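Renewal narrative, Specific Aim 1. Our central claim is that a sequence can be written position by position from structural information alone. The example that follows is taken directly from our test logs and has not been curated for this report. It begins with the structure tokens describing the chain, in the order in which they were read.
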């Protein structure tokens, strides 16, 4: 069985970049180097999404994929017609997703 790789544009919304940066600072305040480990986990999750963007839809048209080592999830949308993946948020799992519903 062969999986067909789909070429899609991968975008990270500016506010999602802020989410990531805030968490990097939070983890670095907890322990030196922990923010870098968090960032590496985010990048690995982005890579997984690029390979296979068809993860489960959690609500409306938003799909979520948890990070492997940190309690956070990447919230993204997939537009198959435009061949585009858009990261909307990267939140700690304890945060309410309604917080960013306007994004």
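The sequence written for that structure reads:
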């Amino acid at each position: 069985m062969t999986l067909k790789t789909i070429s899609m544009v991968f975008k990270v919304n500016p506010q999602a970049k802020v989410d990531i940066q805030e968490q990097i600072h939070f983890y670095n305040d907890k322990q030196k180097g922990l923010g870098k480990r968090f960032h590496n986990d985010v990048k690995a999750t982005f890579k997984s999404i690029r390979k296979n963007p068809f993860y489960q839809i959690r609500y409306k048209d938003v799909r979520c994929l948890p990070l492997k080592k940190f309690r956070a999830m990447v919230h993204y949308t997939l537009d198959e017609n435009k061949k585009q993946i858009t990261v909307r948020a990267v939140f700690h799992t304890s945060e309410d997703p309604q917080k960013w519903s306007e994004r």
